[in-house]
Specification:
Protein name: Ribose operon repressor
InterPro entries: HTH_LacI (IPR000843), LacI/GalR-like_sensor (IPR046335), Lambda_DNA-bd_dom_sf (IPR010982), Peripla_BP_I (IPR028082), PurR_sensor_dom (IPR057343)
Number of helices: 12
CATH class of the largest domain: Alpha Beta
Radius of gyration: 26 Å
Shape: elongated
Organism: Vibrio fortis
CATH topology of the largest domain: Rossmann fold
Structural class: alpha/beta
GO molecular function: DNA-binding transcription factor activity; transcription cis-regulatory region binding
Strand order of the largest sheet: 2-1-3-4-5-11
Number of domains: 3
CATH architecture of the largest domain: 3-Layer(aba) Sandwich
Pfam family, one: Peripla_BP_3
Length: about 325
Amino acid sequence: MATMKDIAKLAKVSTSTVSHVINKSRFVSDEIAERVNKAAKELNYAPSALARSLKMKQTKTIGMLVTTSTNPFFGEVVKGVERRCYEKGYNLILCNTEGDSERMKSSIDTLLQKRVDGLMLMCSTLEGEHLDVFERYPELPVVVMDWGPMLFASDKIQDNSHQGGYMATQHLIDNGHTEIGCITGPLHRNQASSRYEGFKQAMSEANLKVHADWIVESNFECDGGFDAFQTLKSRGRLPSALFVCNDMMAMGVIHAAAQDGLRVPQDLSLIGYDDIHLSKYMTPALTTIHQPKHRLGKAAVDTLLSRLESPEVYPQVVELEPTLIERSSVLTL
């Protein structure tokens, strides 16, 4: 395997000059740089990533921890993260926590052993967990995505879930609905509680009653939406419209309603949340609240790299605003 000394001998320059050309660590004339690069190409030289990382104290690698879910929302965010890492010349190591705090701690230890430059966490099922690893490594840059209040200092990327819940409910009200229910996510999680609070605010401002029988807490998955519809049905008369707090649960509601002979939106209007790629292909196409998933991933990477450059800056919160996507699942009364 060729070394820098071999390149220096072939290009008739010093080894330090070869190092400056390859690492772009000092100005070298175009003529000499061309000779060095030509020699490196002839010798099939491949720089050692390990040696460079030891010298630069950077591995150009970021670790990301996510909780597995059937919800493609997470995959769409990860795609945005991967794309931005590629654009910035970074590698990404992805770990799945499966909602297990011990597995998350083990994964963090593994990533630290691999000397990642920073971490991104998208594990909202573990919201509020005490992670002593961040006390042991206070200098480790961390960006948290989609998570509520934290017990450690870090930058945070989130969508304005309260505003999104308000917008969704207001859209139903604007279309003439006054009997509106809500299928929430797990209310101990910040996203779910914020969307529900937005729902209640819109209802209050419109002087509409929130009927307890039309509120069901569920799990953010398809089966949760299906089961929540069965719960609503068992309680008696259904509302004319539902705010379902994510698209996956909305998909479960549509399936359950169809099995029960109900038509969406003629018999029951629905609005979801997330605007996953599949939502436009549901039957009917789902009106929903769009989360900028690729921008969320991009913002997380950019925030982490900014933290690497300026570690002394106070942790920041980057909030991305949701938008309404109108399709075919809401009937105008």
